[in-house]
Design goal:
Elements (H helix, E strand, L loop, with lengths): L3 E4 L2 E4 L4 E7 L8 E7 L6 E6 L5 E3 L7 E6 L4 E6 L8 E8 L9 E6 L1
Parallel strand pairs: 2-10
Antiparallel strand pairs: 1-3, 3-8, 4-5, 4-9, 5-6, 7-8, 9-10
Length: 114
């Protein structure tokens, strides 16, 4: 079981930037594909970005060109750099492995004001 801890969220104005981090426990982190998800109030959790074990990224259309996912296997950490933030990016952001861990982290709140 991999434990996941998200951090880096906060309140930012539209057009601003934030960098989220997801720290994972366990020696097998480097072998996992990692994904970021988000969940806005009253909405289902949705995929945001993913990165393969080898570093190949992919993105939801809604964030393409604005968000960048990266990973540091030496630190067991995956990052999400979020630029040009919009109010519709407001959500709790989570990370998980692929296949997913049964237990999700607590998430980190991102609030973008207009």
């Amino acid at each position: 079981q991999v434990q996941l801890v998200e951090s880096g969220g906060g309140l930012v104005q539209a057009g601003g930037s934030l960098r989220l981090s997801c720290a994972a426990s366990g020696r097998t982190f480097s072998s996992y594909t990692m994904k970021w998800f988000r969940q806005a109030p009253g909405m289902e959790r949705e995929f945001v970005a993913g990165i393969s074990w080898s570093g190949t990224p992919w993105y939801a259309d809604s964030v393409k060109g604005r968000f960048t996912i990266s990973r540091d296997n030496a630190k067991n950490t995956v990052y999400l750099q979020m630029n040009s933030l919009k109010p519709e990016d407001t959500a709790v952001y989570y990370c998980n492995t692929l296949p997913p861990q049964s237990s999700w982290g607590q998430g980190t709140q991102v609030t973008v004001s207009s």
